[in-house]
Amino acid sequence: MSGAEEQMQQLRSKATELLLREEWRDSIQLYSELIDLCQSQISNTHQHSDPGHLSKLHKSLCVAFSNRAEARSKLQHFTQALNDCDQALQIEATHFRTLICKGKILLCLNRYFNALDCFKAALFDPQGNGNLDIVNGYLEKCKKLEFQSRTGSFDLSDWVLNGFRGKPLELAEYIGPVKVNRSEISGRGLFATKNIDAGTLVLVTKAIAIERGILGGQDSAENAQLFMWKNFINKVKEAVTRCQRTQLLIDMLSTGENEAGLEVPDMSIFRPEIEENGCSNDQKLDMDKILSILDVNSLVEEAVSAKVLGKNSDFYGVGLWILVSFINHSCNPNARRLHVGDYVIVHASRDVKAGEEITFMYFDALSPLEKRVEMSLSWGFNCRCSRCKIEEAVCSKQELREIEIGLEKGVDVGGAVYRLEEGMKRWAVRGKGKGYLRASFWAAYAEVYGSDRSMKRWGRRIPPMEAVVDSVVEVMGSDERLLKVVVEGLKKSGGVVEFERAMKLGRGFYSKVIRKQALRTLLEIGINDKGY
Description:
The chain is an alpha+beta fold and 532 residues long. It contains 22 helices and twelve strands. The protein has a five-stranded mixed sheet. A four-stranded mixed sheet has the order 2-3-12-9, with no helix packed on it. Strands 5-8-6 form a three-stranded antiparallel sheet, with helices on one face. It is elongated. This is SET domain-containing protein. Residues 176-363 form the SET domain. InterPro entries: Gramillin-biosynth_MTr, SET_dom, SET_dom_sf, TPR-like_helical_dom_sf, TPR_rpt.
């Protein structure tokens, strides 16, 4: 054995040992040395001198590229890992381990079509004969994720019915009929490109980075949040350092300044099929800009427009989801979000028309105008949505202010609701205007409808709960507090019509990813002798 062959053998043995011990960085370094040595030996070996020796060198080089790709993928250096896979496959086009490695990387990058091709090709490698179950498992996974990504057809029902137990759900990235455009609300926004029914998915996307923790009392909670924020920033920094595309996506987000001058991105940039553009490990990061972007665009999981499903509901979480960051606030929102693992599922909470902007409520919009103004200012903006403009005209009425003050002082809520309903008749408030004002005073309505005593006194003098709920849902979309009142009413005296109303509201709140039986479970609606 020559000195070079002996050196190669030692490098190969040591690198493999490090790989098995999951010491990824050290194994990458040794595999890089082995690759350099193999390439040097190949270039110095005459093609006709010893075909067997040359073939052996090429095989060693293929395995070295494949193993380095695996180590790099474990560090989530996916672009470099893919390059290594391609180098290995140039040497041996059906190399089983490389095809599996490349397929898994492409799955992580949500490039399902390309991953599917890799796993199909792996079936033709003789090495795969003993691993057909593994390959077929990946093929089925690819087909499922590709179908989800193409159709937006997701079903979390089994997971819900199983009490959120089992393996974490793997969801595809999905972008529905939406695009980014200039917004009259603020800067840029996300807009529907066609009509979207309540409960229908708008998008499903995984966090760039997320940090979770448990908050204690007030003082410890503040310290915990600061600690989590620091960890979150570090995770974002690591994600940006690893991949240039991630950095480009984050760079296009708002820092809160010069909103009008920001470019409107084409939707193709957000689709997972786009090729990776290489890593930017050597590029200097503008951390001041990144911190400003995170301050404006990061989301907490437990928010008024969100619902956390599964074990993460026990934690406080903060994360960054790129496309979700384009969704502006409105006091008459039309969308909500579910948090499932590291994914966000955004869906329409009421019917949305083509061209309409997709909006969340950043704060509790089931509140009177004055409180909403205070909350919007605390968020750093002054809300000028259609609801706020309409209510400004009505709220100048002295009687409306008296109703609000009376409720703060603890007057009979039934009387306050009756007075508001009579006032709307005199002020000629109709259509959506009624829904807006009822939403502003929803807490009072909910208290009346939830009290047998209040309903006995006021029930015949105020609109039925169903009419009020329908008018609020029309302008606000589904909300957990509306849903609670409807479900409680159903449990007391409901029938088929009331059941269908509850289920419709439930779909607007939880989306269509949760089917009928699972939705019943979440709403705690049992099966009665009427069959609903």
